[in-house]
Prior knowledge:
The complex is a heterodimer.
Chain A: E1 4-7, E2 10-14, E3 19-25, E4 32-38, E5 45-51, E6 56-59, E7 62-67, E8 72-77, E9 86-92, E10 96-99, E11 103-104, E12 108-113
Parallel strand pairs in A: 2-12
Antiparallel strand pairs in A: 1-3, 3-8, 4-5, 4-9, 6-7, 7-8, 9-11, 9-12
Chain B: E1 5-7, E2 10-13, E3 19-24, E4 31-37, E5 44-50, E6 53-56, E7 65-68, E8 75-79, E9 88-95, E10 103-104, E11 108-112
Parallel strand pairs in B: 2-11
Antiparallel strand pairs in B: 1-3, 3-8, 4-5, 4-9, 5-6, 7-8, 9-10, 9-11
Amino acid sequence: GENVEQHPSTLSVQEGDSAVIKCTYSDSASNYFPWYKQELGKRPQLIIDIRSNVGEKKDQRIAVTLNKTAKHFSLHITETQPEDSAVYFCAASNPGSGYSTLTFGKGTMLLVSP
Amino acid sequence: EAGVVQSPRYKIIEKKQPVAFWCNPISGHNTLYWYLQNLGQGPELLIRYENEEAVDDSQLPKDRFSAERLKGVDSTLKIQPAELGDSAVYLCASSLDIHNEQFFGPGTRLTVL
């Protein structure tokens, strides 16, 4: 089955800096890669996703890049703000199961200091 | 639109006791998922429903866990008997179908003493 590795486990930045979280996956058939943000005690919420037919996608301060050859994808947050502090999860799924069978990474705790 | 609703939000029980969690998905969502989230880990799928049919329950420990989704709307996840290692957050999610975004509920935090 799919295996998703996520790094780093903790990331501390100053407000205004950029943050990058990286994930690798094992199943070359995977073609859908969402990122979820989970604040303490709250539900995971989708913040951005990318499908394998594109290499990069941006949404304001958030961007995701995908390298299918290397089987890795990354989340980039620019101009970080204290409210960006949360745990971020990457995930991957393969077309055989639609987008339903998501395999999640272990998460990255992002701490943005004012 | 209303989000995925779960209850209870918190549950504390003693080991060997039964426990049940309830989920009401977003209206019109045919696909429903139950996930287990251990502390410091990502969610892990336990079971997926397409309407009332369980189509992926390969990760559900069937000796003690059971689930149902009668009438293809609400769902209940049950553990009987609970063990210490079952302490975790149980998340429910729903989507229009398997090709669309999953929306998560707030979860039920289970503590087994």
